[in-house]
């Protein structure tokens, strides 16, 4: 693989777009992972390098939202911890068991989220009473999504946000904002395991980090400046695209790990 300036600029642009999309709706990995594979990275290195650049995007989004007065509740401590634990277990277990069944389960889950959001136009438009307490949610749904990110990955931010709306009665905006912090946690845990194995291509990762940071910064301000109307259609679109991507991969139509 030849690291040319043109290649790095293309990956920078892809990362910037992915950072914007990921901040608003999740699913940025649908853009960056295929781009890294097309650039010639081996599958494991593509996943590892993707985590390295995604972590700065989620960090930038989280830091920007924190600076605007969000993500300061003490109640976030427990779900952050359980998200990290779930991701660690997932990343450890994925290397030791057969998970081929996820190739069909995950697309169905993503399509289910898209269908639910599409059929409920007022989803998350206002707060309502949650079906779970914050503690119950932090000990069940959050570590499950964290486990999924450690073991698989696509759509993690979308799943965190959807669970916040469905089980905690949060608005879609609130759930999406909180999802940034949880996704940052799971990215940190996953990246630590990949980096320990020497799988990250840091030159490419560093270039894409800058793009992700810029895209996430723009996305955070888009969200806070009335861009919430974009979240719903983006969630639906990214869920469908991620689902089709996973099905195509399983059928051997594309080679995405």
UniProtKB/TrEMBL annotation:
Location(s), subcellular: Cell membrane
Residue intervals passing through the bilayer: 76-95, 101-119, 188-210, 230-248
Iron is among the record's keywords: no
Tagged with keyword Transmembrane: yes
Record keywords, A-Z: Cell membrane, Membrane, Transmembrane, Transmembrane helix, Transport
Domain of life: Bacteria
Cleaved signal peptide residues: none
Topology term for the membrane: Multi-pass membrane protein
Pfam families: TauE (PF01925)
Family that this chain belongs to: Belongs to the 4-toluene sulfonate uptake permease (TSUP) (TC 2.A.102) family.
PANTHER family registered for this protein in UniProt: MEMBRANE TRANSPORTER PROTEIN YFCA-RELATED, TRANSMEMBRANE PROTEIN YFCA
Name of the molecule in the record: Probable membrane transporter protein
């Amino acid at each position: 693989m030849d690291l040319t300036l043109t290649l790095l600029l293309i990956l920078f642009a892809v990362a910037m777009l992915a950072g914007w999309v990921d901040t608003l709706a999740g699913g940025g990995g649908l853009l960056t992972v295929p781009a890294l594979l097309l650039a010639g990275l081996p599958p494991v290195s593509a996943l590892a390098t993707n985590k390295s650049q995604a972590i700065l995007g989620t960090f930038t989004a989280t830091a920007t939202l924190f600076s605007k007065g969000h993500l300061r509740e003490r109640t976030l401590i427990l779900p952050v911890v359980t998200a990290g634990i779930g991701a660690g277990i997932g990343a450890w277990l994925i290397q030791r068991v057969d998970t081929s069944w996820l190739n069909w389960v995950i697309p169905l889950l993503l399509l289910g989220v898209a269908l639910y959001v599409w059929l409920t136009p007022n989803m998350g438009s206002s707060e309502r009473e949650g079906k779970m307490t914050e503690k119950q949610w932090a000990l069940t749904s959050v570590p499950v999504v964290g486990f999924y990110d450690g073991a698989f990955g696509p759509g993690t931010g979308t799943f965190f946000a959807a669970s916040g709306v469905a089980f905690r009665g949060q608005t879609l905006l609130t759930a999406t904002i909180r999802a940034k912090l949880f996704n940052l946690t799971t990215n940190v845990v996953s990246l630590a395991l990949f980096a320990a194995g020497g799988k990250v291509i840091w030159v490419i990762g560093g270039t894409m980090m800058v793009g992700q940071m810029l895209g996430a910064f723009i996305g955070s301000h888009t969200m806070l400046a009335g861009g919430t109307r974009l979240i719903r259609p983006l969630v639906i679109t990214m869920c469908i695209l991620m689902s089709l991507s996973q099905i195509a991969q399983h059928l051997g139509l594309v080679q995405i790990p």
